Amino acid sequence: MTQDNAQTSTPETEAPAKKEREAACILCGKCASVCPVFLATQKEELTPKAKQRTIASLKENTQKLNVTDCNKLAEMCLSCGKCAQTCPQGLNFPRQLAAMRSAHSGWRQWVWNRWVNQGSVLWPMLSTLSKAAPDSKGKNEATRFVQSLQAMHSQKDFPTYVQIAHYDKENAKGQRVLLFSGCTANRVQKSWKHKSETILTNLGYELLSAKDFTCCGLTLDHAGVPDAAHKSRMQNLRAWRAAERPLLVTFCATCYLGLAEYAHDESLDWAEGEQEAWTNALRPLSTLWGNSLFTVDTPAHLFIRYHQPCHWHGKDADYAWLKEVLYDEISAPDSASCCGMGGIAQLGNRKLTRTVASRCWENLLQQPPKKDDSIPCYSKPMGNCLCDLYDDEDEDSLELCDEVVPDYLVITGCSGCTLQLRGTAPVHNGEKIKVGHWLDIIEP
Amino acid sequence: MSQLSLPQRRFLRDLFSDADCLLTPEEMVVFEADASRLEGTPLAVVRPSTDEQIIELMRWAHKERIPLYPRARATNVVGLCVPQKPGIVVSTLKMDSILEVDSDDFIARVQPGVITGDLQKRVEQEKLFYPPDPASLGISTIGGNVATCAGGMRALKYGVTREWVLGCKAILPGGKTITCGGRNHKNVVGLDLLRLLTGSEGTLAFMTEITLKLIPKPESTASILAGFANLEEALHAIKIMFKAGMLPAALEFMGPEVLTALKNAGAVPWPDTVTASLLLRFDGSHQALKADLEKAEAIFKACNVLWSTTGMGKEEEEALWDVRRSINPASFKVAPNKFSDDVTVPRGRLLEAVTGIRSIAENHSLPILTFGHVGDGNIHVNIMHDASDADELARAKKAKKEISDFVLSLQGTLSGEHGVGLVKAPYVHLQLSETERSLMRQIKHIFDPHNIMNPGKAF
Predict the structure, then answer these.
(1) What residues in A contact B31, CB-CB < 8 Å?
(2) Contact at 8 Å (CB) between B233 and B276?
(3) Does the ipTM exceed 0.90?
(4) 3-class state of residue A216 by DSSP
């Protein structure tokens, strides 16, 4: 018995020392170059490395945490996770911050009040949160907000530039599949869900009923309400189990990340080998096309700009596929920049999320160099463009082409990014720039 | 001085907007330190966005005798940004415009807060090239690079930052503005104040504008990563290559301890028999590169290379260079603290230097990582230790001193690129005579009679 104890305690007592060594911020500053909050403000005090120094001092004094303003905790970070991807020490600030939030005594009440009053882009996730609301005022209020959000986002006139000429059914082989649509598609953008269902069926998958799924839990987790997040995860895991562990498909980068993280969550009641099975079952919708064929018809004066969701963490299956289908018709800014959606930060510092969004828009509205060469001559022959007088290779012709003002369409692969970008879209050529999920430009 | 007086605080608040004038300790916590992880006391942090604000600040600080600490991304590892004597940190991050790229004059005019990597991308759009490439180029600024005369891997072929600075506008303590150099690629009028400011570690004046030299961008690049059975063979291969008339753009070396650290931190591509590794990059036309790679491979083969891999063009090369980039993070898995030195020796004495440093490590039973830009004789020496262990710390300090003495005995220098800052200040007298240091102090006194510019650093 005593021997047993000795054996089990040794690795545990060693672990914290080793962990501490790995977990110290070395102030190298790599995080600064990817943090959207810093890049939009140039304020070094808002870099992840600065926050690491701050939380180190809060950790030493937990009393201080209780008096730390909830506003401060909310506005520190947009939870994009880019710093965690780049940190040589493996530090994950969003996760550390979530833990601090949940430890704060007044956090839950604050988060609920703010979510209801200010967090419009987070409303789709509200009904899940309502179950963990600090008092009984949850459900009805939540429904009301979601309805008003639906009204805000009904973009019926979205142009569908991509048609599917042929569905490749080879890969599916009748496999059973659960579609995880996520809060936004379930409550606000039902067309995404319907289109995805049609696509999966046409690709030859057997579509199972996904009505038992709830929020993936990621936003709730970052929001510092871990019990609500845990409940959601358990419910989703059970639904997958009940369906006998079929393929699990999603079309939202944030949902994908949220679901992928389940496999690392040891608090879920995993059966042996189930974590691996979960990871293998999870697929982005855009990876299932196989050799399907598409017809594309886009106006030549249109720039389709792709917004890279942070939550793909650099491995964006959507953009890879879109590039294959749309070639030069679609382009992305050189450096991916966060839209400022920021989950819970929406509740603390809306101004900050707006500042980050403006920087994102600046990048999105830069003209991609390649298409610049070819458009104007063909698109607006009626305009005052004189390109056709010149040889293709004549450099002067490019400058004359600048007279033609292009239109922009922004598409992305994340529900949260779509709502945030729609909410912040600037006016261009007298019209608010259209923003959609890539599903919006597809006619399945 | 432990804090600013009320009138002093009022002055700063009047000169800077609320968002750009930090006065509470909570907001200033990150400004206490830099990547050296040494700490000081900022009395305030200000973020000027105009020359006028800096002029007024320099006039005022000169009169009030308050130290000023210029700071950009604070990536230096020698404590250059640390406000050791309490003072005001001046962040250049809001002065981050590329003012001009002129492809006829072959110059770029920039503000100090521009990220070096961003400038490179910008000039490359016009098929121009700004070669200096300190390892931190994606996260550090031109202002910081010029203040420290940053080096980098391409220094072998293209030289260090100094070679690429044509002019600058700087503000002196007291508020006077000087212009040094300009847009001319040749200029011999007067004493070279520009060279004096470049690498002065912010101790003389505050640069608000910098003009940089550009050249046409090489068509492409190619790299080769090669593993050898031992140090001697790797360094011998370099010698043969130079003798064969080859000058790579970059030539990096990784010693046995580094390879072990990399292996412990993750998978490495080479077999276990490899204990020393070389990483080379060539630049030029596609045809020339192909020939260069073939020639380099043949030379290495003749020098008993055990393993090698090549990459043509940026995408293919990335994987090779990722190995080099993982050294710093991997080093912290060896021990929590390090003294990071970047000694440099005459190129011909490289083998002697590396062997000698390793035997010092052995004598003190400390892991010492040696790697770096061997082509130009610049060796990064990381003395790894646990600072919480008093004995280990004492041994590390002793080893550092011994290495300094040893390098100087080879006619080397204490720092090839990191600078002196706080970390190397105690050792400067080993390299510079009293006469030389006194001359430097007098020059500093002429620029900055009240010693307000980054005091306690450099010399």
Answers:
(1) 44-45
(2) yes
(3) no
(4) coil
